[in-house]
TrEMBL record:
<feature type="binding site">
    <location>
        <position position="69"/>
    </location>
    <ligand>
        <name>substrate</name>
    </ligand>
</feature>
<dbReference type="InterPro" id="IPR050275">
    <property type="entry name" value="PGM_Phosphatase"/>
</dbReference>
<feature type="active site" description="Proton donor/acceptor">
    <location>
        <position position="95"/>
    </location>
</feature>
<dbReference type="GO" id="GO:0046390">
    <property type="term" value="P:ribose phosphate biosynthetic process"/>
</dbReference>
<protein>
    <submittedName>
        <fullName>Phosphoglycerate mutase-like protein</fullName>
    </submittedName>
</protein>
<feature type="binding site">
    <location>
        <begin position="95"/>
        <end position="98"/>
    </location>
    <ligand>
        <name>substrate</name>
    </ligand>
</feature>
<feature type="binding site">
    <location>
        <begin position="25"/>
        <end position="26"/>
    </location>
    <ligand>
        <name>substrate</name>
    </ligand>
</feature>
<dbReference type="GO" id="GO:0050278">
    <property type="term" value="F:sedoheptulose-bisphosphatase activity"/>
</dbReference>
<dbReference type="InterPro" id="IPR013078">
    <property type="entry name" value="His_Pase_superF_clade-1"/>
</dbReference>
<dbReference type="InterPro" id="IPR029033">
    <property type="entry name" value="His_PPase_superfam"/>
</dbReference>
<feature type="active site" description="Tele-phosphohistidine intermediate">
    <location>
        <position position="13"/>
    </location>
</feature>
<dbReference type="Pfam" id="PF00300">
    <property type="entry name" value="His_Phos_1"/>
</dbReference>
Length: 219
């Protein structure tokens, strides 16, 4: 009998002041708001723990963006258990580098560059569309290798967890299901929301999106 199909839990950090007011937050290292912390605490015992959706004994690896908003989100998720699973801090999971548009609202960017769309134009002084796609594809390749080793070789455990950011997660979902990066414009990824990525038909060659924005505060 085949083992259970592997999964990836892709989580966006909780609310920050800049995510609340719509400022592009890439390199800037700002904390969660009090409400952002509560967004995560409110789903701890629902989602995380023995026998729950995210069961620490099933976690093969957790990969966390270095920004404090992501790192704090990760620690809050496991706070009620008294210990945090081993994890990797990786710049590969940082937010899109917005370059000259860091900290700006969308309407402020449009004043500078009418018609700008991050999905086709990238960010001057930051990451291009191709650079972002290449980075995401590298992370996906690593996740799929963890999954392959578990599913085909019986090494490691079932699940991977990533805690990252809004644009990162939207691009990741698009690339996971093998579409162009720009498909990410059609996914809303809410602060604190959990996405579940896996595979159809018990086949690692059929990547699929199983769930989006689990337990998120949907606006």
């Amino acid at each position: 009998m085949s083992p259970p199909i592997p999964r990836l839990f892709l989580i966006r950090h909780g609310e920050t002041e800049w995510s609340l007011n719509g400022r592009h937050t890439g390199r800037t290292d700002i904390p969660l708001t009090a409400r952002g912390e509560e967004q995560i605490r409110s789903k701890q015992e629902i989602l995380v723990g023995p026998g729950k959706v995210i069961d620490p004994k099933n976690l093969c690896v957790a990969i966390i963006s270095p920004r404090q908003r992501a790192h704090r989100t990760f620690h809050l998720l496991f706070e009620h258990l008294g210990e945090t699973p081993a994890h990797i801090i990786s710049e590969d999971c940082r937010e899109w580098d917005y370059g000259e548009y860091e900290g700006l609202l969308s309407n402020e960017i449009q004043e500078r560059n009418p018609g700008w769309e991050i999905w086709k134009d990238g960010c001057p002084g930051g990451e291009s569309v191709q650079e972002m796609q290449n980075r995401i594809d590298t992370v996906i390749g690593k996740v799929r290798e963890y999954h392959r080793k578990y599913f085909e070789e019986g090494t490691g455990t079932r699940d991977v967890l990533i805690v990252a950011h809004g644009h990162f997660n939207r691009v990741f979902i698009a690339r996971w299901v093998e579409f162009s990066l720009c498909l990410g414009t059609h996914f809303n990824v809410e602060p604190g929301g959990v996405s579940v990525l896996s595979y159809n038909h018990n086949n690692l060659k059929e990547p699929a999106l199983n769930a989006l924005n689990l337990y998120a505060d949907i606006k």
